[in-house]
Design brief:
By secondary structure, the protein is α/β, with parallel strands linked by helices. It is built from six helices and seven strands, in the order ββαβαβααββαβα. It has a five-stranded parallel sheet. It has a two-stranded antiparallel sheet with strand order 1-2. The termini are far apart.
């Protein structure tokens, strides 16, 4: 039986061959892929993807909401003053004498969380010094007031230091002592020095009676 001859493949089209040690001709082995770098994903894997962009910077000095409306009482006179845009807003946060400092600290946290700059806030106490102020004063008044003059962080002081502290956009007064005449004058002074917001943490009835609703 006669079989037709198969077509001959030119040598130039054949895959290259190398001679083995035994003299046989063996096909050239395929190159083995090297190790993948961390940036090269596995086949079928999406990989890490582009780096996550940094979150946008917070807008400076947004209008804060130190306390929920249900948890605070605004004095009647403060409602009338709110119509005057040039005057600082007034907010009264109900708190007992023993809890006034805690209420002030919570107000500070809310202000900072809302984007208010630390250097915008001044906290005053009518009774004992705030624990932070007592601690810093232990290093001397010069170092203590130097932090106030730097103006880059929340500062705590007593109302007895009226006239020593500079105006700030937000002033918080913790009524943690008796509201005597000196404390009432300090509250009025704090109202004048607060550029945007005055917060008083204390017993609403006592505060309104002491101030005569004249804040």
């Amino acid at each position: 039986m006669h079989f037709p001859e198969e077509p001959q493949i030119p040598e130039s089209a054949q895959s290259p061959r190398v001679a083995s040690a035994t003299g046989r001709v063996a096909p050239t082995p395929r190159p083995v892929p090297g190790p993948r770098s961390a940036a090269t994903p596995r086949p079928g894997s999406p990989g890490r993807g582009p780096a996550r962009p940094a979150p946008p910077a917070p807008r400076p000095h947004p209008t804060p909401a130190p306390a929920p409306a249900a948890a605070s009482t605004v004095a009647p006179a403060a409602q009338a003053r709110s119509e005057d845009r040039a005057a600082a807003q007034f907010q009264l946060i109900p708190a007992p004498v023993g809890g006034a400092i805690d209420a002030a600290d919570e107000a500070v946290d809310l202000l900072l969380d809302s984007g208010r700059a630390p250097g915008d806030i001044l906290v005053l106490t009518t009774g004992e010094q705030h624990p932070w102020a007592a601690h810093e004063l232990s290093f001397g008044e010069a170092a203590y007031w130097a932090q106030h003059d730097a103006g880059d962080d929340v500062f705590f002081a007593g109302t007895a230091n009226t006239g020593r502290y500079a105006p700030r956009p937000v002033i918080i007064v913790a009524v943690n002592g008796d509201l005597d005449d000196a404390s009432v004058r300090a509250l009025s002074d704090a109202r004048e020095r607060a550029g945007v917001l005055l917060i008083v943490c204390g017993d609403p009835q006592s505060v309104n009676a002491a101030l005569g609703a004249g804040v």
